[in-house]
Amino acid sequence: MPRSLLLASTLLLIFAAILIADTPPDQTLYLQARTALDQERYPDVLRLCEQLVKESPNSDWRHKATFLQADAHARLKEFKQAAQIYEKEARRLLDTGRKREIAQIYIRFAELLSRKPDKNELDAPPPDYRKAHRLYEAALTLEIPIELRDEVMFRKARMQQQAERWQQAIHEYREYLQEFDRLWPTERERTEVQSTGQEPT
């Protein structure tokens, strides 16, 4: 290895050791769990998060670790455990009035419920499009950015389509287009076209 690369590697190791030494234990556990999730070491994620919650029950990192646990359970196809965590955290945040975070939980939970299992996942539950639809509806009642509202409204209509509720799907796709596509005619404009046969002015 060239001396420059060896020196750079050594310096990186030294800097990493300094950072770890200056990082509180609870944050260190969270970062280790985050790294384990990125590396697909899901049992390690659960172990590290459980350790964090046990050793630092009042830590600011505890709830972030809880979401890592939910993600790890979902990727291990342990959907029931993941759903229980999402529901518990949504109730907790509802008490604090943190609406945007609640919306994100609803969306993540809806994604989990509407996920189609692979053909080899024989023990995975089937998609529950109707419950996912209700969760997207709940997210829309909260204060979320317009870009996220765009995505959620589309997904909500998509759930109706996936559930083969065709009339509801048509209605919700139309609502989505009326809100986000300026070229899409409003209900009044369509009525004028149907009654007069002419485009509204």
Written description of the protein model:
- This protein has 201 residues and is mainly α.
- It has helices spanning 3-22, 25-38, 42-55, 62-75, 79-96, 99-113, 129-140, 146-162, 166-180, 187-196.
- Helix 2 packs antiparallel against helix 3 (42-55) and helix 2 runs parallel beside helix 4.
- It is globular.
- The N and C termini lie far apart (74 Å).
Summarize this structure as a short list of keywords or feature phrases.
single chain, 201 residues, mainly alpha, globular
What does the secondary structure layout of this molecule look like, with pairings?
Layout: H1 3-22, H2 25-38, H3 42-55, H4 62-75, H5 79-96, H6 99-113, H7 129-140, H8 146-162, H9 166-180, H10 187-196
Structure in a nutshell:
Helix content is 74%, strand content 0%. The chain has 201 residues and is mainly α.
What form results from the Cα inertia axes? globular
How many strands appear in the DSSP assignment? 0
| Secondary-structure content class | mainly alpha
Whole-number average pLDDT?
Answer: 79
Largest beta-sheet characterization: none
The ordered string of helix (H) and strand (E) elements is: HHHHHHHHHH
